[in-house]
Every structure is written in C-alpha cells, then in structure tokens.
Design goal:
Layout: E1 2-13, E2 19-21, H1 27-34, E3 39-48, E4 57-58, E5 64-69, H2 74-80, H3 82-90, E6 98-103, H4 106-114, E7 123-126, H5 130-133, H6 144-161, E8 164-167, H7 172-176, E9 184-187, E10 210-215, H8 225-237, E11 242-247, H9 253-262, E12 269-273, H10 278-286, E13 290-293, H11 302-308, E14 313-317, E15 331-332, H12 337-348, H13 352-366, H14 371-388
Helix pairs in contact: 8-12
C-alpha cells in the first residue's frame, strides 16, 4: 500500500525532474516509511529551479514520488495560491493510499478537505506546537492571537480524530494535545542516529577562547540567532573570551552578520552556513565546549539530541520537549539574555571533571534516540494505520 505524507517543508525540483532539499528530509529520511509501505508520495510545496546548489541533498528515488503543491511564503502568499493548491490536492482524491499528516500545518487541513474520502482513517505525526510558534515572544504578526487560536484548535482536533498517532515528545505535547483514547499512540523523534553519530568523550579540556556552537536554519527568526548574539555581546562585555560557530544559512544570514558587526562581535562569530554532511557538523561539535539552543519554538529539537550524542555540554531554551532532555539547571527562558548569559558563564567555570560528567550524562540520554530504538516504534505506528485502513 502506498502512503501520502503531507508535510510543510519546501522542496526543489530541478530541470532534470529530480527533487532536492536544502536542509532537511533527504532520501534517507523517507526510508523509514518504506519499511512498512510499498511506496511513498510526498505532498509538499515544490519550487522549480534550473540546477540544485552543491550542498543540497537528493530526495526522490525508488518508490518515492511527489505531488507538487504551489510554492508560497507567508499567509498572504497562501491565500493567493488557494485555487492552485486545491486543484493540486484534488488529484489525490481517488488514489488508493494511506495518509499521514505531519502536523501542525495548514496543508494537512486542506488535504483533509479536498483530497480525503469521507471517513477515511489517517495517522498524524505531531512534530511541533503552535502554542510556541505563535507565542508573544516568538511572533510579531498583528494576527498572532488569531493564528494561535486557529492552529491550536486545528491541531487539537487532528490529534483527537487520528486513528494512529505519534508525538516527538514523550509527554509534553501529549498533555496539551491528547490523542483519542481508542487510537494507537506512541512517541518518537524524526532524528536519525546510528552508531557513527555517537561519541563518548574520555576527556573534556577547556578551549581558549571558549567555543560555543549553535545549529539553526536562518530562513525564519524563531531559531533565536539575534538572541544568541545579544547574549554573546553581554558575555564579551564581562571580559570573557568566546567564539561562536553558527551552522545553518538562510535569507536572514546577512541581517545576522550585520547585527554581529553592530554588536562588535565580528572577530568572534563565524557564520558557517549550511552543511550537508553529518561528518562536517560532528567535527565542529567535537571541537566545541558548549552547544546552545537559542530557539523560540521547537518540537523535540534534533540538533540538541545530536549534540548530546557527541557528549557535548548543552544549554537550551524552555521550548517543546527540551525539559525531557536536559535538567532544569541547563534550561533558560526564551529571549532572556540575563538567564542565558548566567548559564553560559556558569558552564565556563566548571572544571574538566564536571564538564565530562555532564557530557557523559547527555551521551547516555541520547542513547534513547538511537535509530534502533525508534525504528520499532515508527513501524508499529505505520502498521497500526495500515490495519485501521484495511
């Protein structure tokens, strides 16, 4: 049985009709569905390009196809593209397939309205929280309260009506958006960690300058790069020697580079851009003293787990399922420069044995997200959908 997966990610199709991604969901990601389903059809926005960029990764492949939805950005772009969106979705109305919504997202709702036969069961993979997306300190839109109400209610209903459901968190999102008691439900992350992604440190010397690493796409402001830069400036004003590597590019990178220059951080911040190879990212993680997640919203942040798997000390904002990963003393509130400044300064004061103890604790916690552990949960969720749709 084929499965349609409806996802908010934007992809690219080149002139050779091949599909690409610039940051997430390459071909290897979709193999998890092919363990259970005979084929996968990705329903997503697709932008047409002449040639892929060198750092992009291939998405399509054997038994992996696309339904191209019109490309749009923002609410007004969405409104203008509604007719074309509906037309594209209706092509799936009569297809024989199972359906999985990766939510929250408006595309799942429109697919449900215009592509789903009546009373057909579906599965949901809950990967984020609109309460965080449209929180007061995460969105500046004048329509923020309206969007928040719409998306929270939409996700609540999608969870209650799903025949099979998974959450990226162990308990955080489940408390806010409970599943139907009769539905199959489980939890797993989208992360893909194999043995080579883990490194158990046996020493943890302090670098000089103290090396901090952040990972986050700079297409949207919710990764909190500005927040991190402001905190770095506050630490530098204390006379502390620090260096920041920010991995991840996007449209906001020039603005962030200008902010770094304005804060007189040009000599201690390196904007690495997008890295497509896991080994390149691991090399930077292994050379760092601390990973900082400065996000204003997350589900269960994969980059945090990936850093923990390298035995790296970590500090993160209180978003999504972070409290399931780190102890409270390593969690700060969003956009609170004073708290993040204090947390980093405290980490810098630890001796090597204390740093190693924290790193190994993180390493052990990350073992719970090894692909061998998560594969069984994913397969069980997909199998439950197949049985409900039989």
């Amino acid at each position: 049985m084929q499965v349609d997966v409806i996802i908010e990610q934007r992809f690219y199709q080149c002139s050779q009709k091949k599909y690409w991604t610039d940051n997430a969901f390459p071909n290897v990601f979709w193999q998890r569905y092919l363990r259970v389903f005979s084929a996968v059809n990705v329903v997503a926005r697709v932008s047409q390009v002449e040639q892929p960029q060198p750092e992009w990764q291939r998405v399509d492949g054997e038994n992996l196809t696309f339904t191209n939805l019109p490309i749009y950005i923002g609410p007004w772009g969405f409104v203008k593209n509604i007719p074309n969106l509906i037309k594209a979705l209706r092509t799936r109305k009569s297809a024989k397939r199972c359906v999985i919504y990766r939510v929250p997202g408006i595309l799942a709702l429109f697919y449900h309205w215009f592509a789903m036969p009546a009373n057909k069961p579906y599965a949901a993979e809950v990967v984020g929280d609109p309460m965080d997306v449209f929180a007061k300190d995460a969105s500046t839109s004048a329509l923020r309260p309206v969007f928040k109400w719409i998306f929270v209610n939409m996700l609540t209903k999608q969870c209650q009506n799903a025949a099979s459901i998974s959450y990226v968190t162990e308990y955080s999102l489940q408390e806010r958006y409970p599943p139907n008691p009769k539905a199959f439900h489980t939890h797993y992350s989208s992360i893909q960690l194999s043995d080579s992604d883990y490194k158990k440190r046996d020493q943890y010397p302090l670098s000089k300058p103290y090396r901090i690493v952040c990972i986050g796409n700079l297409s949207q402001p919710y990764k909190g790069c500005d927040f991190m830069l402001e905190t770095l400036a506050a630490l530098k004003s204390q006379g502390l020697e620090l260096h920041l590597d920010w991995i991840g590019g996007g449209a906001l990178q020039p603005d962030m580079e200008q902010l770094a220059a304005k804060l007189e951080l040009r000599d201690c911040v390196n904007f690495v851009g997008n890295l497509s190879q896991r080994a390149q990212i691991n090399e930077i993680l292994d050379a760092s003293d601390l990973f900082v997640l400065s996000s204003r919203q997350e589900g269960l942040p994969r980059v945090l787990i990936e850093s923990m798997a390298r035995s790296l000390n970590c500090v993160a904002t209180n978003v999504g399922g972070v409290k399931e990963l780190l102890p409270q003393e390593h969690i700060v509130e969003r956009d609170n420069v004073t708290q993040l400044q204090a947390a980093i300064a405290q980490m810098m004061q630890l001796d090597e044995s204390q740093r190693l103890q924290i790193g190994l604790r993180n390493f052990d916690k990350a073992q719970q997200y090894h692909n061998d552990v998560l594969t069984e949960r994913r397969s069980n969720m997909y199998q439950a959908l197949l049985e409900s749709d039989a």
